[in-house]
User: Fold these one by one.
Assistant:
Number 1:
Amino acid sequence: MVVQALINRGIAPLRPSDTVEHALGMLMEYRVRHLPTVTLAGELVGLVSEEQLLDAEESGTTVGSLLQQVPVHAKPDLHVFEATRTIVEHGLTVLPVATENMSYLGVVKRHDIFDLFARMLSTQESGAILALEVDPADYSLSRLVYSIEQSDVKILSIASETPETEGKVRVTLKLNVNDTSRVRHVLEHEGYQIVAAFSEYDDDEDLKMRVQEFMRYLEV
């Protein structure tokens, strides 16, 4: 999927002549921390943050005077994975979308793009979640899928995180079953280290404990 499919045109952009006071009011209205700045001719000329506005010396300062460089933006044919990387890298709540000649088209909201990923990862589907680790040299997606499906279990979604330097590949699986005992046994026999397992059958206290342990593991 490309950015074009997620463009939100319901958020009005700022104008270079708008004051800091007006811009802060717009941020509150749309519940975001960034807004694009667009000329009357429709050219994207900036992306203003809440921090910039709060740091302005006077509330009557114009937004245009705060613009310093070509704004961070995405082209409409950019893949959502690349757009997500830009959003995370710059800590954005909205990502402006513009054509090659900087003609403004709208924004992609951080909330909407992560909602998309939630659907792609089948978070709304019933089933258990497994988190596991494996050495990079031993990681094979086809082998992992085969091992799981040999247990009569289907994978609803899969996400992997490759270490930047040394370390193991982390893989998170959403399965179509709640009882993972059989598939865990198979994976451990194949050399995978199961680091967390979550099921809809877990009671609240057990689930809370498992989540806390997994979060501590991720922080290591």
Number 2:
Amino acid sequence: MPAPRNSSRPAREDGRTAPAPLEALRGRAALLTQVRAFFTQRGYLEVETPVLGRAGAADAQLAQFAVSDPVCGTLYLQTSPEYAMKRLLARGSGSIFQITKAFRQGEGGRFHNPEFTLVEWYGVGYDHRRLMAESCALIARLVPSLKPEPRLVSFRQAFRDRLGVDPIEDPTDVLQECAYTRLPATRELVLDDRDALLDLLMSHAVAPHFPADGLTVITDYPASQAALARINPQGLADRFEIYCGPLELANGFHEETRREEYAARFAAEARKRHARGLPAIAQDEQLLAALALGDLPDCAGCALGFDRVLMLAMNAAHINEVLTFPIEQT
């Protein structure tokens, strides 16, 4: 691994960011080699799916790049390879992984770029607990300087410990008052969307206090934040997120497998989009058709932000330090 970096990438004379130095390119190549070795040793098949598709992600929180093509009509740059990989799982691919580019609008800042590298994988026969352990093992292999044992905390306990509120049981007005008290700048905002409010509190009032020298794994999310994870008998989502300090690195699910549940959740997200005045996104009919031939096999899946992990491995202060060409340089 190249020597750690502590300074920001220098600017060129025209004020734009200079290309990544050679140590960043070598560091990226070395970590990509380790990722492939990690999954190959565990029997995963590497796959490649399109980054351009006729359907976009159902998630109302994701802003997507739409492309107008005179032959194909509206196409979307994919926010993740999830739906295409699930079509492969439904066809009997077995455990699979992919290293790909993903695209999200409105992504900018210290930890964000609108185009980024994602590692996504699905373990057939896995539940989210087994995948949590595997995800932490991968990160530990890529960033050996982190403490070896991850810290596991439920979503509810993380809020109780830091904010003294219950994100599952407390009414929305209690959470609103918590945000106004802990984050005074939010007093000018209308915080009536419960899930957006929980996301705000997690990212700005809870996660900033996670230890920076090791991993924190948050589990058991509210059912309203399940996305495509299973809902367990306790009414919570079998979902986890992995943080290093305030930086979210990975997001994983024990995957829902039933076609009717996918259709219902796609429809629910479409209603959220409409209520928020967001553009409608075509549902992934190909995925629904694949699931109509048979439910998804029992599996768990995870998406890992590779560029962020590379930042940790190289002690970089800004994502631009590890990107070959950040958006300002394209």
